[in-house]
Amino acid sequence: MLVLNKKIGGSIMLGDNIEIRILEMADGKVKIGIEAPRDLTILRKEVYDQVVEENKNAINNQVDPLTVLRQNSK
After folding, report:
1. Are the beta carbons of 52 and 60 closer than 8 angstroms?
2. Which 3 state secondary structure label does DSSP give 35?
3. Residue 24 contacts by C-beta under 8 Å, 6 or more apart in sequence?
4. What is d(CA 48, CA 51) in angstroms, rounded to the nearest whole number?
5. Contact predicate 19/35, CB 8 Å
6. Buried (b) or exposed (e) across 10-24, using 16+ Cβ within 10 A?
7. 8 A C-beta contact, residue 10 and residue 24
8. What does pTM read for this prediction?
9. Of 20, 12, 25, whose CA–CA distance to 42 is shortest?
10. How far apart (Å, rounded) are the C-alpha atoms in residues 59 and 14?
11. pLDDT tens across 42-74, in order?
12. How confident is the model at residue 31 (pLDDT cuts 50, 70, 90)?
C-alpha cells in the first residue's frame, strides 16, 4: 500500500487519466474529488463489497427456467 501525505488542493494521478484531489479536511474527515473517464465505474468500498456479495449470491442461486416453467404449468 502506498501512503501519501497531501495538503488541501494537492492531488495524485492514477495512470494518465485519473486524478484524485484533496478538497477539504475537517472534523477528522477528508473530502476528495475524482476526475476520471465517464466510462469508469467509481464506487465507495462498502458499496463495491455489497455488489460483489450480491453477484456471488446470484451465481449460487441460479434457477433453471425449465424447472420453474414445469412447476408453474401443473
Report:
1. no
2. strand
3. 8, 30, 31
4. 5
5. yes
6. eeeeeeeeeebebee
7. no
8. 0.68
9. 20
10. 32
11. 999 999 999 999 888 888 777 777 777 777 776
12. very high
